[in-house]
């Protein structure tokens, strides 16, 4: 944290120095970005930088300014239309679209922010060149600068396009949705017909209120707890299962290792949504498994034993809480273990053999070897990826959504918030946006998911990765 | 936006006046053609007095709006149409669209038919109204939400026939919000009634659920209705006189936690406690039917399942209105939701005029009959419904018999989840305190939309 | 004497596990050959066998099912995505692993933070961004969405690059090679396993995704869909009784090329992921 603020301080201090000590060319760059380069004979670079400035000014003035002007209210003119029955055409007023105002304001502000960064670093650069010139050192020609983009400044070349992609399709949408958490964008305020506007922290307050009609707080706590249990269970069951399976197959006594491995790998090859939908149908109340269980008398036996409700259609594999929770974890093992098995196979092959040999000579049992040597080695290597997979399991949309298609909760309080016992925060969020257009609450939940993930990552990384071992490995 | 529309209108007005000067030949032909295919041509039913478009109409001079429109149309007209994803629907719609093109031979159309389940039309349309189809078919329960979101072009004028006059009153009501017609009735098929196997159940048996359940136990078969859906659950409570209505702000007013409502819940739980009376979803039932056999020989479903059921029940195939059931020792007639499929015009369509004409064409008498022949779904048009072919269908007769006990579906979005949960708990017999369960459900149903 | 029993037992356990894992797969394949179009609820294997489902997939495109078009669309998207994504991932990984610059650490932290927001949340906003660019309903738009953010998935690849001995790069640099030359001539040729891993993963992701695709492809004309949207659509309430076994056949067809890819590339795939996971 301290480093961060120091860095920030230096950043602006350097800028201050450049302005204070800059000569006429450097100071003229404050207005026209390219001037500093023109003054030192770097004509092409000067033109390019000035063009960027012109482009940003044009973009802001022509495109984003009208939206930014309305950012405070998110628009005031509602859509009105008049239909003329005689010409069968209609006239529409020049209405505001809150959604586009917010979206383009985000874009406009990002562009301005990026320009600010370019602006500051440009002044610094110009000042550097000024000093080079004063000291009589060589100033790079344009051709040399281009060449540097493939050598010491190669990272700029490498990162520009990927970063641009991330900014346009990840950062902009995220900022937009974070903003939505502070508005009243829901089914009653849907653009383009209606406007939405800022409501401050109201939605966050709603999340934690609890009464008969607004049960979001109740549902949120339930779902959060299940999300965490799920993330931990899903991660560790597949992790350990994968290692055990890999050990089992790779044992010296196993014949036909490749064939066994291929059998498990086949399940990876079928697209996940196909297998998940298929399993959902297999285990549905009137699916094939229940059909067979009925024929074998299993269902009536379970009913007699009082394990399932007498009114149930079959074994409620995916339709009752408890049953569904267990099934989801088991099915996730089914999906995840082959993957982990592949990874573990690769890592197990790399275990230093001498350690294993000496342990065997010492008379350790296989079980001891597994817990004392294999597991610590695996954990050492895959520790960080375990944390990432916990985070990705928190956001594991597909498994839950596809498996529990058609689940009805027996808990009326959850139903009142459009939630289900087996929902993760992300699937609840999806239901709220997709079926109920409740974007504001979905965004609030999304922010909570982020906070949970951030906390887990922070705790995990500080405990698991001590220091930066990056260089040691190279 | 504004500029675009204005300039389009200007162009329209200019071309119209030019053509009017040239004797209005092309326009005349086309409107004649349209007259042939749809004899009910009339001038707009309701003229918008407040519409001020700058006196372009006076210049155009032609009083026939369709001729105006044809004259104003330049180049091909691109329209998107969404209707049910089933093969039967897609095929018959393609034919109807061909007829539509033939009715206006002077205009070049580019009509794409998209497959979109009308049950989910609202969700898909509201994702982005501006990208949704110009004309789409949807189930009538979505009307209020679509209107509230401004996704439907009000039917302020009609051109080839007047939907309010030729369709059944219920269907027109189902398309109307606050006295304004918002959609064109297409079918009167989305209600439900009782299918039964007459080889097992007599006509007397199917008058009451008690009779059906008793006979089913006797014959070793089953009967049932889906419980985990608010759509069907409504029928029991409404039958006993409980009410569920939609308020202006999109919330519900529901009184199912009254004594009558609690009594219904208890009666329903008692029925589901009988192994012969089961909770079965329509999808699962159809899976059994397509496999060729089922133990469930009396089931509440809609016209869309008639074909499958007829195949399995064979000569025993029969249908009738919903039975009565026992609440507090009295027989109560089970009510139902009357469901309709409606054709709507997207308020954000760029070709409102042609979209309205297409919507009218799809929903006119001839088209409704064609749809009935292809899909077995009963027409909303009274003439079409009176035709021999329609009257001969047992499913549609049953639907008509149920009609006096069917209500218009006007429910806010907060109803469905709590109702499904209530139904599930009733069917599985997990409720012990019925009053508390009903209070909880009603709290959820009546919850504010915030 | 004890040993042989244990070895037999070991294979029996493996066999049981394999059966457990293959039951859904067997059901998928069996159902795809069923003459009955809906879902079977009474017998595991179909009572009547037929290859009609496959014939329907390939030869009789209708308004619900247009498998050849879906397959073509998914193939185009998959190939384009895997080219762009692989290039992006390699570029970012090289910059983060082999180069040192001021913004490196902040950028890496930033990527981790971004990854913690649920993607489902921003989907609707992604849609509007794409719409304003005018690319909804197009293959190109989907390619853009799937590959634009791919640079964020650089971690495993960076882990792999970290294991390449630094001395290799040092000596090349002493001989006057530029970073560009080192990247293309030294690091890439050594990275076959991780490239295979990245290619497979980025090829697969468009085949698996339907949520995003369904939102981005507004067209209701089956010819414009991807395999995932199309197959998902077949399980709609009104269609499932007519198309369930066709859905299964579609699943089998999609799985075949991927299985082959996996079995052939398995060795590299494992090497790639383990090489990368060493550093995660």
Estimate the mean pLDDT confidence of chain B. 83
- CATH H-level homologous superfamily name of the largest domain in chain A: MetI-like
Q: Which fold name fills CATH's third level, the topology of the largest domain in chain B?
A: D-Maltodextrin-Binding Protein, domain 2
Structural class from helices and strands of chain B? Answer: alpha/beta
Multimer state: heterotrimer
Helix percent band of chain A: 55-70%
Which CATH class of the largest domain in chain B is shown?
Alpha Beta
Shape of chain B: globular
Can you identify the CATH superfamily of the largest domain in chain B? Periplasmic binding protein-like II
Helix content of chain B: 40-55%
Measured between the Cα atoms of the first and last residue of chain B, the distance is: 32 Å
> How many domain units of chain B?
2
What profile does the largest beta sheet of chain B have? 5 strands, mixed
Low confidence ranges of chain B:
1-61
Structural class of chain A: mainly alpha
Detailed description of the structure:
Chain A has 474 residues and is mainly α. Chain A contains 21 helices and 2 strands. Chain A has a two-stranded antiparallel ribbon. In chain A, strand 1 and strand 2 (89-92) form a beta hairpin. Chain B folds into 2 domains: 75-182 and 341-379, 3-Layer(aba) Sandwich (D-Maltodextrin-Binding Protein, domain 2), CATH 3.40.190; 193-337 and 394-445, D-Maltodextrin-Binding Protein, domain 2. Chain B has 21 helices and 18 strands. Chain B has a 5-stranded mixed beta sheet with strand order 2-1-3-17-6. A 5-stranded mixed beta sheet of chain B has the order 11-8-12-7-13. In chain B, strand 4 and strand 5 (180-181) form a beta hairpin. The model of chain B is unreliable at 1-61 (pLDDT under 50). Chain C is mainly alpha-helical and 280 residues long. Chain C has one domain: MetI-like fold, CATH 1.10.3720.10. Helix content of chain C is 74%, strand content 0%. Chain C is built from 13 helices and no strands. The radius of gyration of chain C is 23 Å and the shape is globular. Chains A and C meet through helix 5, helix 7, helix 9, helix 10 and helix 11 of A and helix 1, helix 3, helix 4, helix 5 and helix 6 of C.
Give the SSE layout:
The complex is a heterotrimer of chains A (474), B (450) and C (280).
Chain A: H1 2-21, H2 24-28, H3 35-39, H4 43-69, E1 81-84, E2 89-92, H5 98-134, H6 142-148, H7 154-180, H8 202-207, H9 216-250, H10 257-269, H11 272-282, H12 288-295, H13 298-304, H14 323-349, H15 353-361, H16 366-394, H17 397-403, H18 412-415, H19 425-434, H20 439-464, H21 470-473
Antiparallel strand pairs in A: 1-2
Chain B: H1 2-21, H2 25-37, H3 56-60, H4 65-72, E1 77-83, H5 87-103, E2 109-115, H6 121-127, E3 135-139, H7 143-148, H8 163-166, H9 169-174, E4 176-177, E5 180-181, E6 184-187, E7 193-197, H10 209-219, E8 222-224, H11 230-239, E9 244-246, E10 252-254, H12 259-273, E11 277-278, H13 282-291, E12 296-301, H14 306-313, E13 317-320, E14 324-327, E15 330-333, E16 336-338, E17 341-345, H15 352-362, H16 365-375, H17 382-386, H18 388-391, H19 394-402, E18 406-408, H20 416-428, H21 434-445
Parallel strand pairs in B: 1-2, 1-3, 8-11, 8-12, 16-18
Antiparallel strand pairs in B: 3-17, 4-5, 6-17, 7-12, 7-13, 9-10, 14-15
Helix pairs in contact in B: 1-4, 2-4, 5-16, 20-21
Chain C: H1 2-32, H2 52-59, H3 67-98, H4 104-115, H5 119-133, H6 139-148, H7 155-162, H8 166-174, H9 179-190, H10 192-208, H11 211-216, H12 227-234, H13 240-277
Helix pairs in contact in C: 1-13, 2-13, 3-6, 3-7, 3-10, 7-13, 8-9, 10-13, 12-13
């Amino acid at each position: 944290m301290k480093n961060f603020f120091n860095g920030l301080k230096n950043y602006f201090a350097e800028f201050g120095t450049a302005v204070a000590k800059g000569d006429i060319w450097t100071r003229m760059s404050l207005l026209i970005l390219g001037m500093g380069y023109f003054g030192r004979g770097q004509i092409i670079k000067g033109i390019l930088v000035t063009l960027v400035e012109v482009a940003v000014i044009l973009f802001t003035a022509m495109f984003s300014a009208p939206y930014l002007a309305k950012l405070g209210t998110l628009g005031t003119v509602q859509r009105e239309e008049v239909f003329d029955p005689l010409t069968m055409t209609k006239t529409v007023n020049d209405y505001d679209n809150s959604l586009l105002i917010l979206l383009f304001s985000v874009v406009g502000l990002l562009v301005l922010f990026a320009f600010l960064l370019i602006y500051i670093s440009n002044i610094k650069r110009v000042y550097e060149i000024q000093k080079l010139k004063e000291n009589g050192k060589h100033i790079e020609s344009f051709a040399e600068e281009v060449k540097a983009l493939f050598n010491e400044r190669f990272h700029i070349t490498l990162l520009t396009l990927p970063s641009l992609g991330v900014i346009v399709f990840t950062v902009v949408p995220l900022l937009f949705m974070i903003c939505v958490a502070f508005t009243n964008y829901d089914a009653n305020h849907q653009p383009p017909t209606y406007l939405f506007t800022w409501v401050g922290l109201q939605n966050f307050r709603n999340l934690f209120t609890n009464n008969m009609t607004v049960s979001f707080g109740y549902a949120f706590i339930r779902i959060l707890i299940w999300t965490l249990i799920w993330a931990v269970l899903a991660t560790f069951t597949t992790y350990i299962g994968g290692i055990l399976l890999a050990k089992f197959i790779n044992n010296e006594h196993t014949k036909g290792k490749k064939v066994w491995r291929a059998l498990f790998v086949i399940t990876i090859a079928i697209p996940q949504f196909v297998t998940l939908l298929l399993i959902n149908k297999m285990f549905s109340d009137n699916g094939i498994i229940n059909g067979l269980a009925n024929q074998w008398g299993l269902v009536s036996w379970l009913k007699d034993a009082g394990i399932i409700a007498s009114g149930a259609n079959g074994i409620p594999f995916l339709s009752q809480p408890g049953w569904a929770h267990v099934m989801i974890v088991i099915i996730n093992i089914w999906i995840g273990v082959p993957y982990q098995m592949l990874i573990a196979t690769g890592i197990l092959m790399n275990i230093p053999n001498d350690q294993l040999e000496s342990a065997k000579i010492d008379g350790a049992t296989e079980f001891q070897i597994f817990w004392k040597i294999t597991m610590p080695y695996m954990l050492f290597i895959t520790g960080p990826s375990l944390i990432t997979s916990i985070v990705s399991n928190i956001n594991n949309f597909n498994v839950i959504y596809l498996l529990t298609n058609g689940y009805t909760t027996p808990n009326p309080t959850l139903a009142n918030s459009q939630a289900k016992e087996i929902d993760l925060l992300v699937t609840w969020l999806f239901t709220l946006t997709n079926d109920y257009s409740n974007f504001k609450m979905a965004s609030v939940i999304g922010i909570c998911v982020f906070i949970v993930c951030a906390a887990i990552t922070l705790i995990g990384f500080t405990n698991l990765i001590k220091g930066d071992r990056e260089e040691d490995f190279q | 936006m504004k500029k675009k529309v204005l300039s389009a209108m200007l162009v329209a007005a200019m071309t119209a006046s030019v053509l009017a000067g040239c004797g209005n030949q092309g326009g005349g032909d086309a409107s004649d053609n349209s007259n042939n295919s749809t004899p009910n041509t009339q001038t707009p039913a309701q003229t918008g007095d407040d519409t001020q478009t700058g006196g372009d109409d006076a210049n155009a001079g032609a009083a026939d709006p369709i001729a105006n429109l044809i004259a104003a149309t330049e180049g091909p007209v691109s329209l998107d149409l969404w209707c049910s994803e089933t093969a039967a629907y897609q095929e018959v719609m393609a034919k109807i669209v061909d007829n539509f093109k033939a009715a206006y031979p002077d205009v070049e159309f580019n009509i794409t038919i998209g497959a979109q389940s009308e049950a989910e039309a609202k969700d898909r349309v509201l994702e982005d109204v501006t990208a949704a189809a110009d004309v789409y078919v949807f189930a009538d329960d979505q009307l209020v939400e679509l209107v509230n979101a401004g996704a439907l072009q009000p039917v302020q004028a009609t051109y080839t026939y007047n939907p309010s006059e030729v369709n059944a009153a219920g269907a027109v009501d189902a398309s109307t919000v606050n006295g304004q017609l918002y959609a064109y009735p297409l079918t009167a098929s989305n209600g439900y009634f009782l299918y039964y196997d007459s080889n097992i159940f007599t006509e007397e048996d199917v008058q009451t659920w008690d009779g059906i359940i008793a006979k089913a136990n006797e014959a070793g078969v089953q009967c049932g209705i889906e419980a985990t859906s608010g759509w069907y659950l409504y029928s029991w409570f409404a039958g006993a006189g409980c009410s569920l209505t939609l308020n202006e702000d999109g919330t519900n007013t529901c009184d199912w936690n009254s004594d009558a409502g609690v009594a219904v819940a208890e009666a329903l739980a008692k029925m589901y406690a009988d192994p012969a009376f089961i909770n079965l979803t329509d999808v699962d039932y159809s899976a059994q039917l397509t496999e060729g056999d089922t133990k469930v020989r009396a089931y509440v479903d809609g016209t869309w399942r008639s074909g499958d059921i007829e195949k399995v029940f064979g000569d025993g195939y029969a249908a009738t209105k919903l039975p009565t059931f026992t609440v507090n020792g009295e027989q109560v007639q089970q009510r139902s939701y009357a469901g309709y499929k409606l054709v709507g015009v997207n308020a954000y369509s760029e070709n409102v005029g042609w979209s309205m004409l297409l919507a009218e064409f799809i929903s006119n008498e001839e088209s409704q009959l064609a749809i009935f022949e292809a899909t077995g779904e009963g027409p909303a048009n009274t003439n079409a419904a009176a035709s021999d072919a329609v009257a001969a269908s047992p499913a549609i007769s049953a639907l008509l018999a149920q009609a006096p006990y069917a209500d218009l579906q006007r429910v806010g979005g907060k109803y469905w989840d709590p109702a499904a949960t209530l139904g599930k708990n009733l069917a599985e017999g997990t409720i012990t305190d019925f009053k508390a369960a009903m209070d909880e459900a009603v709290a959820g149903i009546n919850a504010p939309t915030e | 004497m004890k040993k042989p029993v244990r070895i037999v037992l070991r294979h029996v356990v493996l066999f049981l596990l394999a059966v457990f894992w293959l039951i859904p797969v067997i059901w998928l394949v069996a159902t795809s050959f069923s003459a009955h179009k809906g879902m079977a609820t009474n017998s595991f294997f179909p009572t009547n066998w037929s290859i009609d489902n496959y014939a329907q997939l390939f030869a009789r495109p209708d308004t619900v099912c247009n498998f050849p078009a879906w397959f073509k669309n998914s193939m185009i998207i998959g190939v384009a995505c895997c080219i762009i994504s692989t290039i992006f991932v390699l570029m970012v990984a090289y910059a983060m692993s082999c180069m040192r610059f001021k913004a490196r650490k902040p950028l890496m932290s930033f990527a981790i933070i971004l990854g913690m927001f649920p993607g489902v949340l921003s989907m609707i906003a992604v849609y509007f961004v794409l719409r304003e660019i005018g690319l909804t309903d197009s293959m190109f738009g989907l390619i853009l969405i799937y590959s634009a953010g791919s640079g964020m998935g650089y971690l495993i690849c960076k882990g792999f690059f970290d294991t390449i001995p630094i001395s290799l790069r040092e000596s090349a640099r002493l001989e006057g090679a530029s970073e560009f030359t080192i990247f293309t001539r030294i690091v890439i040729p050594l990275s076959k396993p991780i490239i295979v891993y990245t290619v497979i993963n980025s090829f697969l992701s468009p085949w698996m995704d339907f949520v995003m695709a369904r939102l981005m492809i507004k067209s209701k004309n089956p010819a414009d869909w991807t395999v995932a949207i199309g197959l998902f659509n077949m399980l709609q309430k009104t269609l499932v009784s007519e198309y369930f076994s066709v859905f299964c056949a579609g699943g089998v067809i999609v799985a075949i090329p991927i299985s082959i890819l996996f079995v052939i590339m398995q060795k590299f795939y494992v090497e790639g992921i383990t090489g990368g996971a060493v550093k995660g």
